[in-house]
Amino acid sequence: MTKQTTISLIAAMSENRAIGLNNALPWEPIAADWDNLKKVTKGKKMIMGRKSYDNPHRIWSEVGNYVITRQADYVADEGFEVVSSLEEAFEKCKSDDEVFVLGGEEIFRLSIPYADKIYLTLVHETFEGDAFFPEFDESEFTITERKEFSAGQNTPYDISILTYVRK
Ligand SMILES: NC(=O)c1ccc[n+]([C@@H]2O[C@H](COP(=O)([O-])OP(=O)(O)OC[C@H]3O[C@@H](n4cnc5c(N)ncnc54)[C@H](OP(=O)(O)O)[C@@H]3O)[C@@H](O)[C@H]2O)c1
């Protein structure tokens, strides 16, 4: 990984930090969040944990995807490359300008120390979850952008889309 590669995390979490339930999102589809994700990740490679990959509603990039697993014999679908660590995925993206870590909880936990940017959508509701976005030290970041969407504006819930940039 060269210094030029920006490591970005992108996630959506509820007020109680839930990001997943039963290997799916805890909420109804949020078009405004999906539109934002497609826009900011366009043309960038994606890195994800095996559980997030192994999901009928998985997200992927047209330019390259890395699936992190401890299973030595794991075979992923075409368009996805299997790696054994986050660092191995970063190494493979070292000539890219930006790479996105898509989660889930385990992979976010490992990647926050490396994050240059966090694109975080706050869903202003409480949801049951079994996967959560880890607490992180927000004082290490500056919020450079905040977009607000009210329920009914392409979203069933009030949401805020924040961009955190490491100081
Ligand atoms: N709201 C959001 O923004 C968002 C985004 C993404 C995912 N999600 C949700 O998050 C949930 C999944 O999160 P999760 O934490 O359960 O799973 P995950 O982070 O997607 O994947 C976990 C898997 O990654 C592999 N792994 C973890 N640490 C590793 C390490 N140090 N070295 C090598 N491999 C490692 C292991 O795969 P093996 O077991 O194969 O070894 C582990 O089971 C789902 O509910 C999903 O819908 C939400």
TrEMBL record:
Among the Pfam families in the record, one is DHFR_1
GO CC field: cytosol
The EC number(s) attached to this protein equal 1.5.1.3
- Residue ranges constituting the DHFR domain according to the UniProt record: 6-166
First-level EC class: oxidoreductase
The record lists the catalysed reaction(s) as: (6S)-5,6,7,8-tetrahydrofolate + NADP(+) = 7,8-dihydrofolate + NADPH + H(+)
Q: GO MF annotations for this entry?
A: dihydrofolate reductase activity; NADP binding
| Pathway in which the depicted protein is active | Cofactor biosynthesis; tetrahydrofolate biosynthesis; 5,6,7,8-tetrahydrofolate from 7,8-dihydrofolate: step 1/1
Q: Name one GO biological process term.
A: dihydrofolate metabolic process
Which terms are listed as keywords in the entry?
NADP, One-carbon metabolism, Oxidoreductase
Which InterPro entries is this protein grouped with?
DHFR, DHFR-like_dom_sf, DHFR_dom
Name the job this protein performs.
Key enzyme in folate metabolism. Catalyzes an essential reaction for de novo glycine and purine synthesis, and for DNA precursor synthesis.
Family that this chain belongs to: Belongs to the dihydrofolate reductase family.
Q: What name does this protein carry?
A: Dihydrofolate reductase
In which organism is this protein found?
A: Emticicia aquatilis
